[in-house]
Amino acid sequence: MINLVLFGKPGAGKGTQATFLKTKYNLVHISTGDLFRYNIQNETDLGTLAKSFMDKGDLVPDQVTIDMLEAEVNRNPQAQGFIFDGFPRTKSQAAALDAFLEGKKMNITATIALEADDDILVARLLERGKSSGRSDDQDESKILNRFEEYNQKTAPLKAYYQGQNKFHPINGIGTIDEITTRLTQLIDRL
Ligand code: AP5
Ligand code: MG
To answer: For all residues of the chain together, what is the average pLDDT?
Structure first.
């Protein structure tokens, strides 16, 4: 079983690359952002709650996010492994994930970080914002707030996973294909 955390700032390409990796390695892809957006679309209570945070580019509270993630893993008992995309994003989420997986005799195989400069990421997100309908892509101040949240709350996870010898940075600049190749070369060596 391999369980990967795809790590990186907003726009780094986590969702894009997960689409290729899940097919190649037969993994279940769980994006907490996609799950929240699904709930918003279906007007669930969870969606209403999440929307109030996501519209501003703030993180959704930890416990809500952790509960949703665990439910999604539990919905896939036959999985040969998972790609966690956009989760964990805080130390308390990372600790909860470790404890949850340990309870299932599972663990994180590797955390792979897609790295790119902010100006490239802002350009990608503003471009997508023209057609995605994502409120958090629409203006630069919301994008910058997402980066701020990342810097304050998510960036410390680098040290957390380095401490477990599981942190692998990858150059996230280039064509989508080039980055997929970098990722598969790394994963094949794990
Ligand atoms: P989430 O949905 O996770 O969004 P994000 O991490 O802010 O950023 P993206 O998903 O937009 O980026 P990505 O890295 O997936 O890049 P993508 O492949 O899409 O979270 C949204 C919100 O939900 C959060 O702000 C928070 O409120 C809430 N949330 C989610 N998880 C949470 C958690 N764990 N805790 C608390 N709150 C949580 O690519 C971006 C664009 O770039 C696309 O248009 C793509 O086509 C393009 N692109 C990708 N790769 C390349 C390339 N190599 N070259 C050119 N363009 C590229
Ligand atoms: Mg994404």
So the answer is: 97
pLDDT digits (tens, 9 = 90+) for 59-102: 999 999 999 999 999 999 999 999 999 999 999 999 999 999 99
Distance 87 CA to ligand 1 centre (A): 11
Sheet of strand 2-7: strand arrangement:
28-31, 81-85, 2-7, 110-115, 167-171
pTM given for the model: 0.98
Ligand 1 atom 49 nearest Cα: 13
Supply the pLDDT for residue 174: 98
Contact 84, 6 (CB under 8 A): yes
Which of 4, 7, 9, 16 to mutate to test ligand 1, by most ligand atoms within 8 A of the CB atom? 16
Give me the residue spans of the domains in the chain: 2-189
What's the CATH architecture for 2-189?
A: 3-Layer(aba) Sandwich (3.40)
**Residue owning the nearest CA to atom 17 of ligand 1:** 13
Beta strands 167-171 and 110-115 are parallel
From the DSSP assignment, how many helices (H) and strands (E) are in the chain?
A: 9, 5
